[in-house]
Design goal:
two-stranded antiparallel ribbon, globular
């Protein structure tokens, strides 16, 4: 609870919304830099706003430590109040955006960087030509952005369970394949029982079971937490890497393991908040994405002719 002295001060003074938002961001992030990034301001602006709130209240709200800012109970309570205010603000703005029937103004889309590189860049170029009044912003990240807080209007995600609280549109099914340099693939083909090096995605304990059934002597050389790094590791000869089929087929230096068919993988979805279902911009982009991905379904689930060498079929 806020102290009596703080209540007394707040009867005659008020913390402005920018300062409340800043306290909330600093409680969430724990550092000036993290709060500044969340608010799209400089860290000096964050420090100044916090100092202004502390001077108004007459007491410190954070303990300054080398590793970051530790919030006091008062800061925690102000942050809870700010979070409720933020939620109400975002709900109102989403409802207003949902009623917008103009094909103009800002629209923010988030999607994985590699999917933008391989497919979405050409889609977005066509979408912008066809909708010149829409001011498109793209956030290329694998991070799950919060659509309720309007960090994006639309999110393209690769997931088996994209979330019950959002409106999802299935775009494409996917498959994965296991690939490596041709010399590694040739050795595996000649000696399936020999030791076979693998590079895994962080958090994966072992190669796929279907691969181990054919090549049982797996040797894990490294793990990476990023698909771009995994691709680089495979091209550097570190071992076999499991990756989405659409990425593997765009890497001419890599070949699939013999006798191993592509495996099912998480589908591609586009998600939006329910409040934005009637937004003309959102509906326009969703419809365009659906048509684009449906016309290219085979890119994500079918092997191209020539991807395997003769005799290497599943």
């Amino acid at each position: 609870m806020l102290s009596r002295s703080m209540h007394a001060k707040m009867h005659v003074m008020q913390i402005n919304w920018d300062d409340m938002r800043t306290i909330l961001a600093l409680v969430r992030a724990g550092t000036l830099a993290g709060a500044a990034e969340a608010l799209f301001v400089s860290y000096t602006t964050v420090a100044r706003r916090v100092q202004r709130a502390e001077e108004m209240l007459g007491r410190p709200l954070f303990e300054r430590r080398p590793e970051g800012y530790l919030p006091s109970p008062e800061a925690q309570e102000l942050a809870r109040a700010a979070a409720l205010m933020e939620q109400q603000e975002q709900e109102a703005l989403r409802r207003l955006s949902g009623r917008d029937q103009a094909l103009s103004g800002p629209l923010t889309l988030t999607a994985p960087q590699l999917l933008i590189q391989s497919h979405l860049a050409s889609f977005l170029a066509a979408f912008c030509r066809q909708n010149p009044e829409i001011e498109l912003s793209v956030r290329a990240t694998n991070d799950v952005l919060d659509l309720a807080r309007r960090e994006a209007d639309l999110a393209i995600r690769i997931s088996k369970s994209p979330g019950d609280s959002l409106v999802g549109l299935h775009l494409a099914d996917q498959k994965t394949t296991c690939v490596a340099l041709p010399e590694i693939v040739a050795r595996a083909k000649a000696e399936p029982q020999a030791a076979l090096d693998w590079v895994l995605y962080s958090g994966h304990e072992a190669p796929p079971r279907v691969a181990l059934a054919l090549y049982p002597n797996a040797r894990i050389t490294a793990r990476f937490d990023d698909m771009t790094s995994l691709i680089a590791a495979a091209k550097a000869g570190m071992g076999v890497v499991r990756m989405p089929l659409y990425l593997a087929q765009d890497e001419p230096d890599l070949r699939p393991l013999p006798c191993l068919a592509p495996q099912d993988y998480a589908p591609i979805w586009v998600l939006s908040h329910p409040d934005l279902q009637t937004s003309a911009k959102v509906r326009q982009c969703k419809a365009a994405l659906k048509g684009y991905f449906r016309s290219r379904q085979e890119d994500f689930s079918a092997e191209r002719p020539g991807f395997r060498q003769a005799g290497d079929g599943p």
